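Notebook, p. 212. Picked up where the previous page left off. The plan for this session was modest: take the two constructs that came back from the sequencing core last week, fold each one, and keep the raw output in the notebook itself so nobody has to go hunting through shared drives later. Recording the first one now, exactly as returned: residue sequence, then the structure token string.
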Amino acid sequence: MLKIKNYINGEWCGSESGKTSVRTNPANYEQTVGQHPASDGADAKKAVDAAQAAFAQWKEVPGPKRAQLLQKAVENIKARVEDIAKGLTLEQGKPLAEARAEANRGIEEMEYWVGEGCRMEGRHLPTAKEGAICYTVREPIGVVAAITPWNYPMIPSIRKVCPAVVYGNTVVLKPASLTPFTSAAVVQCFHDAGFPPGVVNLVIGSGSSVGKVLTEDSHVRGITLTGSGEVGKKIAEGASRHNARLQLEMGGKNPAVVFESADVELAAANIVARAFTCAGQLCVSISRVIVQDTIADRLMALLKERIKKVIVGNGMETGATMGPLVSEEHLESVLGYVKAGLDEGATLVTGGERLTGPKYDNGNYMSPALFTNVDPRSTIGQEEIFGPVLAVTRFGRFEEALEIANGVKYGLASCCYTGRLDEALAFVKKAQAGMVQVNLPTYVDAWAPFGGFKESGFGPHEVGYTNVEFFTEQKTVYLFA
């Protein structure tokens, strides 16, 4: 059985209490993935203190030299990518092909941040003071707490730790307790690259104990979270007491609007691919389809046909295209949404059942669900399900489609399918989302800003050039000599 520990001040260590937890494979309850610390506030405080002590020296290391260390960490991950991907599948459940894709996307993002070590730029500004010069510089903020989710154990860890350290901050990483093993593997790569003690720290434990300290400790100057809106609001409340800056990437209820001018087969293929990646447990999953009346029947037929081809199974088995849900509790939550959809009058076209039989009885499996006749005001039309459930609503006019697409509290991603440029441009302008795609699934590159509007996000967007606004402070300098 794999056993991992916390990583604090350059050393692997158990929790102060000695308590541990065990994670079983969501695809097979009989298989134990490993054992990890059940840390508490004392461990979190120890990690914050280590990060605070390391900050004074780390911030003085030139950016290009910090980037050189990060490049070594990249090479370490590249050398171990297959083992990391297999471990990711075992603890999270997604198919191995998806785990490999996540690991390789993580490498892409790391390589971007290596380059940022030479791009922390300031500006020269004019001044009315004769004989003086005015310029700005960027400086690291200090200790950063990075809180990551269970659905993508690798990418958010990299997405938060890499910009933190390359800009000269120190970091305490708290992964989700359901999936901490991938984060530990990533941190091992940083350790082996030669990062100084205290620059990168890892504490594994619950949000109510570890997360509380990371949120409320005054030495923590920035908190970057990927998680639910409920958790984000609690973190914002705690951070406000000591003016820590926030970068919150939260939920989504992302629509795909399909106009009658669209390539319907392209739309169907992209929608199904994005709706059931990671069993729908993805913040940018397409969970709503808003389709024009004139092509609705054709699109529904194509969606049903493609969903029937989704192969649910153990992510380590060849051929599986959708794995189990992450836990029994979460499976019950998603099945509860299926019931709510039926109770509120939607039509279940296919799927939505817990799968049984020798292949499925020891895991958290369900069939991908497709609903039609969904009232956009209903539970499954409004709430983030975070599972393999796709809700279809019809519309007549463009304005009606936009009203439905924007009529939720979230605003993470929004896409449309159309063959008309005027429709595309109008949709882009009026969509209330941080990321908008036309004739593409909900997606962003490894260097493009990632974040949402409304209750989907708060603070500077992750990924790409916008991160500098969160991980650094701007200093304005006047010099007269």
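Okay, moving on. Second construct, recorded in the same format:
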Amino acid sequence: MTSQRQLAAIMFTDISGFSAMMQDDESHAREVLQRHRSVLEQTHKSLGGNVLQYIGDGTLSIFNSAVAAVECAVAMQVELRQAPYVPLRIGIHTGDITYDENGAFGDGVNVSSRVERLCLPGAVYITEKVYDDIKNHAWLDAIRLGKFRLHNINSSIDLYAISSKDLTIPITEDLAALPEFAEQSPVSTETSNRKKGVAFVLALLFGILGVHRFYLGQRGKGIAYLAVFGVGLAAVIEGEALIMIVMAILGFVDAVLLLAMPQMEFDRKYNQITTKVRQKKVPKRRRAEHPDFSRRARSKPSPLITYLKKGMKSLSAGRYQEAIKWFDKVLDLDQQNKEAHYYLACCFSLIKEEENAFVHLSLAVKNGFADFERIKQDINLYFLRAQPTYEAFVKNGYKLMKALPEPQPDLLSTDRFDPSVLDKIELLGDKLEKGELSDAEFQLEKQKILRGEG
């Protein structure tokens, strides 16, 4: 095969934590790998993708269209949510690529590979070049993550995360912990209060005029609707009604799409206004005079913050056992740290240790973690949410259900019954409720009391 060079949308995929998965359960890991490749091949075939290489648990593929590449990535992530769940990372960049039977080369390959490494499991990260091609897409939405310094890439690159179809999107604090992070997104968001039902009614009744587009803040599209309506009205006067019929159908289609759109997607798309934020900078020659500058320059992050950031980095990279060690170090310094407990719940969920995941999620909420929407959507907690006891756990206020002590039906009928025995067992029960004793310790101490040894 002679080498070929082309401009393409380049996609890298990789299964997060696959090496650890192989060590824990090789048969499950092979099932996950096979599912990844099966879904990838099906979606690529339907959307015109060309798989160039299988690289261990990852792949390299190209598309002639950036839109097709992103649509394919979203379809893959949505499908891979189903059991067995595949924690896949996907990075996409548009650039030159040269490939032959020995491999693929080019700056485009390097960039897309590094974007994939930054990606969270269940997410799709794209570069600004790809975003420029999809920003006017009918249903693909993305949020800007900021600028990142990628290894061996000369300049910082703007990255975006696809937010359609409830894909995983990163938390700002998680991004700031990454060493590649260069600049926070220069936008702030303020929400509006547009109603999906109102938009539906306006599209159904006045869609031909584009009134619903004005309501949704899409002034340009609204003006376009009005302009076409004016042309159609002139055509009707001349005896030609085709344009008006098409506009009426288009308004009806918009109404149906709005009605079928999930509320979360509607809010993300139409109830978020981005506005530029001006950031004050301290003049270079007067930095020393800034009241907090000298103190900030000398200060070092606390060990707790350092451990937390290292844990988040390991979690993002799929090194779950390593992340657990860092978060345990955080708890050594602060046993009530809600972030550490939450991330430990994520780690144990990803390695399918159900009991530990429930314990740490319960402790996170107990210590003040209140982002329940994140708990509902975090792809890292997918395994935990699939457990049959999860719904009862949530209804119980994210508290663990304690097992009751085994009954002793013959205790009161014995001649040797001592009334103080019940008091002692009751005290043990109080310690169990407070978490001062484990279930095993409770049972052991209870047996000692019943034998008259306690």
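Notes on construct two before I forget. Confidence is low (pLDDT under 50) at residues 185-190, 273-299, 410-417.
Flagging for discussion at group meeting.
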